[in-house]
């Protein structure tokens, strides 16, 4: 049985039998032409643990142009570095990268999680202050607020 806990400023809210994790947006960029965004969530993350081990994923970087989510990864207290952990599907579906799926299985002592297993769904929703698109496109870190929500489902 895997336990998921929030790290830093992250929060997890249960609604019925579903869990929603929220991460403060701490910065990023938005391409005014393509609409692609890089969204930073520094100071928050998730910890996955069971009797076999603990895996911490923090400081998410969501890259909507390359459809990937990077994170600082710590396995049983030892840093594994900043790695691509999730693939971001067109519908917001989050699947683990092949490397991340291997690390999760090895750390948590399972073979049930693969790179095709949908872990949850992401719904980024940045809000820029002031709310002009030009300001958002030029610099989000100093003027950004909001949160990025992730629906977590049982694997």
Write the SSE topology.
Layout: E1 3-8, E2 11-15, E3 18-24, E4 27-30, E5 37-50, E6 53-63, E7 68-75, E8 78-88, E9 93-96, H1 98-108, E10 118-128, H2 133-138, E11 144-152
Antiparallel strand pairs: 1-5, 2-3, 3-11, 4-5, 5-6, 6-7, 7-8, 8-9, 9-10, 10-11
Task: Provide an overview of this structure.
A hairpin with a 2-residue loop joins β5 and β6 (53-63). The chain has helices at 98-108, 133-138, and strands at residues 3-8, 11-15, 18-24, 27-30, 37-50, 53-63, 68-75, 78-88, 93-96, 118-128, 144-152. It contains two helices and eleven strands, in the order βββββββββαβαβ. The protein is mainly beta.
Terminal Cα span: 11 Å
What helical percentage do the residues reach?
A: 10-25%
Give the helix/strand class.
mainly beta
- Envelope shape: globular
Sheet with most strands: 11 strands, antiparallel
Average pLDDT reading:
82
Number of strands: 11
Task: Supply the number of helical segments.
Answer: 2
Query: Per DSSP, what share of the residues sits in E-state strands of 2 or more residues?
Result: over 45%
Unreliable residue runs: 127-145
Order of helices and strands: EEEEEEEEEHEHE
**Nearest-angstrom radius of gyration?**
16 Å
Feature tags:
single chain; 155 residues; mainly beta; eleven-stranded antiparallel beta sheet; 2 helices; 11% helix; globular
